[in-house]
């Protein structure tokens, strides 16, 4: 028989309130530059400023919760990838953050763009992204989506299954056009935050297996399809990768596949895409690499493997950064509603700071344990640091935004909290749980604020509810 643990029965000496990576700050008001977009400062009044605007003014104008996107920083990160990877194609992964205005920024900065659905494609095109610079991804693109992509003339479609090759061939034949494709493969390596695992089994839904032989089979099927122009192999090994070691295995295996294709057909595959997943700093312990470092290391690995495999034509290369462009420029702003001390054990307490958002506007901590940071944004404080947990207002105890962070001990209802590195996979993964209204995204630049995506309203939600009859 098992016994329920009584709350509070945890032994005090088994509780470690602060994780190892989080040290007590000397100055709880200090900002760690690697976490924040480049225009963020704490101003003379102690409040955060971004894009030349005091966050208190931003909140006065758009309320909380809200996402703030620093246009200067977003564009700078896009340019940094484009410049460091010059000679490569850089596809911004739109799923990390997409609206028509951000699509225009990407287009203006000269990058290409990846979309993962017909609806993302519609937004990218509406934002002025040229179709020829768009790549279309997805493990289950519908016939309607493939048709939309072909008719729009997207630059490449990333094939994810044998079924899709037949579908695409039929769609193109009917319209007497040719589609350029890459074949997504699983290279048997999966990257995680601080390590990578070379897996024997490729137990996931994306791509065609190299070791299982389906990848070569898929390449040959594309090669044989009259209305498909095969460009090369695509590999995306994961996300939040800090070391290029994971790419080393992927580069070797994908180029071995290029070699096998050459041996089978006598033809070189002209392109290779190495995917995205470049890590950013969500917390102080994260050590992201610069775009220059990544470019140099990846370039060297490709050349070394090509030599080893006697591939005398080095393929044209591309990458697909998402969060490394859109993550750091964005911050989330919340207002503190309640502050509660919870006793974990005799003498051990945790401070729960509840804010007016939560898992509906950032699902990543609840979904896969992602770590974030936070700071008191509306004022500086003389109080000492207190280990806090920043939680949302939803009906789940897993509704955590920032698991562990030091905030000033006088944190109180009404204070504003800013969460850095919230530009990617926050608004794009937002939900209406508890009928939460999705927060707006505002762009800031040179003291000017403009709405990129407006706040959802109760009218927006009720418009979907067929049983709702508005009072006349
Ligand atoms: C999500 C995704 C990316 C971008 O991942 P980040 O971690 O945001 O860089 C790139 N390529 C593919 C195929 C993806 O699915």
Automatic annotation (TrEMBL):
Cofactors demanded by this protein:
pyridoxal 5'-phosphate
SUPFAM superfamilies membership: Alanine racemase C-terminal domain-like, PLP-binding barrel
Give the record's pathway.
Amino-acid biosynthesis; L-lysine biosynthesis via DAP pathway; L-lysine from DL-2,6-diaminopimelate: step 1/1
Q: Does the keyword Ion transport apply?
A: no
Tell me any Pfam family this protein matches: Orn_Arg_deC_N
The UniProt annotation places substrate binding at: 323, 364, 368, 396, 425
What reactions does this protein catalyze? meso-2,6-diaminopimelate + H(+) = L-lysine + CO2
**E.C. number, please?**
4.1.1.20
Q: Which keywords does this chain's UniProt record carry?
A: Amino-acid biosynthesis, Decarboxylase, Lyase, Lysine biosynthesis, Pyridoxal phosphate
Q: Which segments constitute the Orn/DAP/Arg decarboxylase 2 N-terminal domain?
A: 73-326
Query: Which InterPro entries does the UniProt entry name for this protein?
Result: Ala_racemase/Decarboxylase_C, DAP_deCOOHase_LysA, De-COase2_C, De-COase2_CS, De-COase2_N, Orn/DAP/Arg_de-COase, PLP-binding_barrel
Question: PROSITE patterns of this UniProt entry?
Answer: ODR_DC_2_2
- Residues bound to pyridoxal 5'-phosphate: 277, 320-323, 425
Instruction: Please give the Gene Ontology molecular function terms for this protein.
Output: diaminopimelate decarboxylase activity
Which residues are recorded as modified (N6-(pyridoxal phosphate)lysine)?
95
Question: Which parts of the sequence belong to the Orn/DAP/Arg decarboxylase 2 C-terminal domain?
Answer: 330-423
Instruction: Tell me the first and last residues of the signal peptide.
Output: none
- The keyword DNA-binding belongs to this UniProt entry's keyword annotation: no
The subunit structure is: Homodimer.
Role summary? Specifically catalyzes the decarboxylation of meso-diaminopimelate (meso-DAP) to L-lysine.
Alphabetical list of HAMAP family matching this protein:
LysA (MF_02120)
Q: Which family does it belong to?
A: Belongs to the Orn/Lys/Arg decarboxylase class-II family. LysA subfamily.
Question: What is the protein's given name?
Answer: Diaminopimelate decarboxylase
């Amino acid at each position: 028989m098992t016994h329920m643990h009584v709350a509070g029965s945890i032994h005090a000496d088994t509780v470690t309130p602060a994780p190892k990576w989080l040290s007590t700050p000397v100055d709880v008001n200090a900002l760690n530059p690697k976490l924040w977009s480049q225009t963020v400062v704490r101003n003379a009044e102690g409040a955060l400023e971004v894009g030349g605007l005091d966050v208190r003014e931003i909140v006065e104008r758009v309320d909380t919760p809200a996402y703030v996107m620093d246009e200067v920083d977003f564009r700078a990160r896009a340019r940094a990838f484009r410049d460091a990877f010059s000679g490569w194609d850089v596809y911004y992964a739109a799923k990390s953050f997409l609206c028509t205005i951000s699509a225009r920024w990407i287009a203006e900065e000269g990058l290409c763009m990846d979309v993962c659905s017909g609806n993302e494609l519609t937004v990218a095109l509406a934002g002025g992204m040229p179709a020829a610079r768009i790549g279309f991804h997805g493990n289950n693109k519908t016939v309607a989506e493939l048709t939309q992509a072909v008719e729009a003339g997207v630059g490449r479609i990333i094939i994810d299954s044998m079924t899709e090759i037949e579908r695409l061939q039929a769609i193109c034949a009917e319209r007497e056009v040719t589609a350029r494709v890459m074949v997504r493969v699983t290279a048997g390596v999966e990257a995680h935050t601080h390590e990578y695992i070379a897996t024997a089994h490729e137990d996931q839904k994306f791509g065609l297996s190299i070791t299982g032989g389906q990848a070569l089979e898929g390449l040959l099927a594309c090669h044989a399809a009259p209305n498909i122009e095969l460009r090369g192999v695509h590999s995306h090994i994961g996300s939040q990768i800090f070391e290029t070691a994971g790419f080393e295995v992927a580069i070797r295996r994908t180029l071995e596949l290029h070699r096998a294709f050459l041996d089978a057909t006598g033809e070189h595959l002209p392109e290779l895409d190495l995917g995205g997943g470049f890590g950013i700093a969500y917390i102080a312990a994260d050590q992201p690499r610069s775009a220059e470092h990544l470019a140099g290391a990846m370039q060297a690995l490709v050349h070394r493997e090509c030599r080893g495999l006697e591939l005398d034509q080095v393929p044209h290369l591309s990458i697909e950064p998402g969060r490394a462009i859109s993550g750091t420029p964005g911050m989330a702003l919340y207002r503190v509603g309640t502050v509660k001390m919870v006793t974990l054990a005799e003498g051990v307490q945790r401070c729960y700071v509840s804010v007016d958002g939560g898992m509906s506007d950032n699902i990543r901590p609840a979904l896969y344990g992602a770590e974030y940071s936070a700071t008191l944004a509306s004022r500086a404080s003389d109080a000492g640091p207190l280990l806090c947990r920043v939680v949302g207002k939803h009906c789940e105890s897993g509704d955590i935004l920032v698991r562990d962070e030091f905030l000033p001990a006088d944190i109180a209802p009404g204070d504003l909290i800013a969460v850095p590195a919230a530009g990617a996979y926050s608004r794009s993964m937002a939900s209406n749980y508890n009928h939460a209204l999705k927060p707006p995204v505002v762009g800031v630049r040179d003291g000017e604020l403009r709405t990129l995506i407006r706040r959802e309203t109760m009218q927006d939600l009720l418009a979907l509810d067929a049983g709702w009859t508005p009072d006349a």
